[in-house]
Write a structure and sequence with these properties.
Elements: E1 2-6, H1 9-14, E2 17-20, H2 28-36, H3 40-45, E3 53-56, E4 59-60, E5 72-76
Parallel strand pairs: 1-5
Antiparallel strand pairs: 1-2, 3-4, 3-5
Length: 82
């Protein structure tokens, strides 16, 4: 089970977070695809044409990063500011 967390505008749409069961060896991309497959607000918020960043256990990561049971995976929009 992977603990998902959403931040900024994604949190507003999807809530604070949830748990997601994935097969062993799944990647961040597979987790995003599983959420996209739900359709509705998940498909809208995490659409492939939207810039979404991810962090695995509080470290920025690529979508190719492999997940392990108990990991925390966060999704958030790119950060801007000045």
């Amino acid at each position: 089970m992977v603990k998902l967390r959403f931040f900024a505008s994604l949190r507003e749409k999807l809530g604070e977070g949830e748990a997601l069961a994935l097969p062993a060896g799944s990647t961040v991309a597979a987790a995003r695809e599983a959420l996209l497959a739900r359709g509705g607000i998940h498909a809208e918020a995490l659409a492939r044409n939207r810039a979404v960043r991810s962090a695995l256990n509080q470290k920025m990561c690529a979508e190719s990063a492999v997940l392990a049971d108990g990991d925390e995976l966060a999704f958030f929009p790119p950060v801007t500011g000045g």
